[in-house]
Amino acid sequence: MTSTTRREFIKTASALAPLALIPASARAQRFAQAAPEQFDYVIAGAGHNSLLCAAYLAKAGNSVLVVEGRAMIGGGVKTAEVLLPGFRQDLCSSVHSGFSRNPAYTDNEIDLRSFGYELIDPEIVAHYPFLDGASLTVYRDDPERTAQTIAKVSRKDSQTFRELTASREKLQQMPAAQRASSREGLFFGRLYELSGYDAGRQIWESPHMQAANLTGGHFGGVAGNDLGTGSQAVTMIGQLGGRPIPRGGSGMLSVALGRFIEAHDGVVMTGKPVARLLIERGRCAGIECSDGSRYRARKGVVSTIHIKHLIEMAPRELWGDELLDIVDIWQPEHAMFAFNFALSEQPRYHSSEGGTITPCEAAILERPESIFALNEDQARGELNIDDYPLQIVHCSNVDPTRTPAGFGAVKIEGTMPYALKEGPEHWDVIKEQVADKLLTQYMAHTSNLTKDKVLAKVLMSPLDIERMNPAMWRGSVHQRLRTFDNYTPYRLPLPGLYQTGGCTEGGGSVTGRPGRAAAAVVLEDDGKTLAEVAAMRSRRS
Asked: Which helix (H) or strand (E) holds 53?
């Protein structure tokens, strides 16, 4: 067995080995060699939301420049061969459920299919194994088959699952005006006000069902013992709708968006960290990069830089007290970790239906009450990881493009404190030990994995997550605490400057909602509508 850890991969952008960087177009090559020209819009940062916003602006006929500080575009939506050649691993996000419902995709407002973006919707949505041999499995669009796996741990819970699924479906089919006052609407509304832990105890008889729904609900990053997380008690019902992934890796969305922008005469440049905003006559007129290069914008600048960093790029008095008040009380979510492993075979699990199964995702939490450890450890800067909720992602089980034939890969992720009591830098000391303990716990839930089947590893602690993408301030991949209704406006107080990304309404995750919403605001200020631009014909690759 060989085992590889690439610590410097995270610490420097040049160590990234991308799945598919966008080849520099002839226009981009000429631009890089010539004196900088002025664009209609300059986009600071190349996360998927800023790329989507740039795509709409370019489709509208604007000249667009996207500058990205790292070696590859995508922010939290990128895929790279960081483990071994041929092992295409998602560095952060994997599931694109939210984006699959965005009109940019569903209505083909931005024609990404022509540029290489294709979704896979696995039949096995999520698998929940337990050490006592029990397991629960969610099958896409099949509540009855899912209920049958639940019946193996509790017949009562199986029936409750059927009834709640039917009730939720009835609610979703009602006209929006009737939902809140309906019996179903009142029930779910009151349920969601509880914590996921309390709501689960009210609904489910079996601790297995309570724990499974809590750990699946934690995929969103918020601990299920917080008030207002009651929807986590019915996570498995929501998962019936599927959790699609892109063929070839999460980063294929960013690659397709970059290709779309270049096909519409936009320019995408990497290795260009933004250092400050150019201010002229009280207006944002462009950006200056850390290498001293400057790029001017005739109409506006769109930022996806975290708001905590952005306000340091211009004099503080230009931001206005209202925005500064928002930023001063900004709260990140619990920080994320992602431990990646290349395997000599695909991960498998015992199925309650007999035999083994190879799902795209699994999740682990043995006891529902263990969810309380997350907030306690966050407050103390400690790690009590005997039973943390873990999200297990192994896209190669359903997408053969991710690994060489016969091999597998797994990403073990979840949340842990960024600010350890010894300081965030202590992660560099303990990361290997923490990862090994979680790997041991995880493998005990599989039917076939042992440590001798690990070929390589890349371990990203919460500190490494921030190093990889500074917009993930304090390791928070969603950029803000989503149970706290605090966000940055799309139209910033500094004229000529707009914001998108996880700091804005719509928040983190791969939804594209902030990118599309920001585009609508920018286009409105330019005398256009999003509907008009969406109806325009796109250029093909």
From this structure: helix 48-59
| CA of residue 111 relative to chain centroid, distance | 22
Q: Burial of 527 by CB count in 10 Å (0-12 exposed, 13-18 middle, 19+ buried)?
A: exposed
Backbone φ, ψ for residue 302 (5° rounding):
-115, 125
Query: Residue 434: exposed, middle, or buried by beta-carbon count in 10 A (0-12, 13-18, 19+)?
Result: middle
Q: Answer whether residue 401 shows pLDDT above 80.
A: yes
Residue 108 CB partners (closer than 8 Å, separation 6+): none
Judged against a pLDDT cut of 70, whether residue 35 lies above it is answered with no
State how beta strands 390-393 and 408-416 pair: antiparallel
Q: Is the pLDDT of residue 32 over 80?
A: no
Other C-beta atoms lying within 10 Å of the C-beta of residue 36: 14
Read off the pLDDT band of 170 (50, 70, 90): very high
Span 458-478, mean pLDDT? 92
Instruction: Pick the more confident residue, 25 or 349.
Output: 349
What SS3 state is found at 501?
Answer: coil
77: left (phi over 0), alpha (psi -120 to 50) or beta: beta
Q: Kindly give, in sequence order, each residue whose CB lies less than 8 Å from that of residue 315, ignoring residues fewer than 6 positions away.
A: 279
Query: CA of 449: how far to CAs of 340, 341, 409, 443, 457, in Å?
Result: 15, 12, 11, 6, 15
Stretch among 36-40, 272-276, 287-291 having the lowest mean pLDDT: 36-40
CATH 3.50.50.60 range(s) for the chain read 23-82+93-119+248-329+480-535
Cβ density class 378-396: b for 16+ within 10 Å, e for less: beeeebebebbbbbbbbbb
Q: What does the alpha-carbon distance between residue 480 and residue 487 come to, in Å, rounded to a whole number?
A: 8
CB neighbour list of residue 236: distance below 8 Å, 6 or more residues apart: 126, 136, 138, 146, 161, 209, 212, 213, 216
Q: How far is CA 452 from CA 340, 350, 359, 402, 449, in A?
A: 15, 20, 22, 21, 8
Superfamily of chain region 23-82+93-119+248-329+480-535? FAD/NAD(P)-binding domain (3.50.50.60)
Phi/psi at 32 (5° precision): -65, -25
pLDDT band per the 50, 70, 90 thresholds, residue 541: low
Gap between the Cα atoms of 165 and 387, Å rounded = 29
Instruction: Please give the average per-residue pLDDT across 509-529, as a whole number.
Output: 96
State the SS3 of 229-285. CHHHHHHHHHHHHCCCEECCCCCHHHHHHHHHHHHCCCEEECCCCEEEEEEECCEEE
Residue 28: predicted pLDDT = 54
pLDDT at 483: 62
Distance CA 212, CA 236 (A): 8
Provide the 3-class DSSP secondary structure of residue 380.
helix
Residue 458: strand, helix, or coil: strand
Q: pLDDT value at position 36?
A: 57
58: closest CA among 37, 45, 76, 39? 39
Residues 480/330, Cβ–Cβ less than 8 Å: yes
What is the pLDDT, as a whole number, of residue 497?
98
For residue range 357-384, list pLDDT tens digits in order: 999 999 999 999 999 999 999 999 999 9
